[in-house]
Amino acid sequence: MRNKNKQPADPQRIQLREPISNTNLLLIITVCTFFGMYGMAMAVWGGGFLNPQQFLDLFNNNSFLIVISCGLTIVMIAGGIDISVGGITALVTMACVVYLDDKGGSVAGSMALALAIGTAFGLVQGLLVSYLEIQPFIISLAGMFFARGMTTIVSVAPRTAENEMFMALKEFRIVIPGIGSYGKTGNFIPARIELGVVIAIAVVILVFILLKWTRFGRNLYAIGGNSQSARMLGINVKRTRFFSYLICGVLSGIGGYVYLLHTGAGNASNASASEMQAIASAIIGGTLLTGGVGNVIGTLFGVLSLKTINNIVIASGLREPYWQSITTGMMLCFFILLQSVILRIRAGGTKRD
Amino acid sequence: MPNDIVLSMRNISKSFPGVRALHNVDFTLKSGEIHALMGENGAGKSTLIKVLTGVHPKDSGQITIAGSAKEVNIKSPQEAQNLGISTVYQEITLCPNLTVAENMYIGRGTYSFVSWGKMREKTTELLEKLNIPARATQQLSTCSLAVQQMVAIARAVDMDCKVLILDEPTSSLDEREVEKLFSLMRELKSRGVGIIFITHFLEQVYEVCDRITVLRNGELVGAYDIKDLPRVQLISKMMGKELDDITDLKNSRVSHVRAGTAPVYEAKGLSSAAGTRAFDFKIDQGEVNGFTGLLGSGRSESVRAIFGADKITSGKIFVNGKPAKIAKPRDAMKYGIGYLPEDRKQDGIVDDLSVRENIILALQVMRGFFRPFSKAEAEKFADEYIKLLGIKTASSDTPIKSLSGGNQQKAILARWLLTKPQYLILDEPTRGIDVGTKVEIQKLVLKLAEEGVSVTFISSEIEEMLRTCSRLIVMRDRKIVGELTQDDMTQAKIMHTIAGEAAQNG
Amino acid sequence: MAKRFQRLRKSQLVIPLFALLLLALFNLIRDPSFFSFNITVNNEGNSVLSGNIISILNSASELAIISIGMTLVTASSRGQDISVGAVAAIAGSVFVRVLKEHTINWPIILLAFVCACLVAVLCGAFNGTLVAGFGIQPMIATLILLTAGRPIAYWINGGATPTVESPLLGYIGSFIPGVPIPTPLLIVIVFAIFVSLVLRLTNLGLYTQAVGINEKSARLNGINAFGMKMLSFMILGICVSIAGCIGVSRMGLINHETLLLDIEMDAILAVAIGGNALSGGKFSITGSVIGAYIIQALTITLYAMKVPSTAVKAYKAIVIIAIVVLGSPVVQSFFLRLRNKMFPKPAKVEEKQAYAE
Question: Whole-prediction pTM value?
Answer without folding.
Answer: 0.80
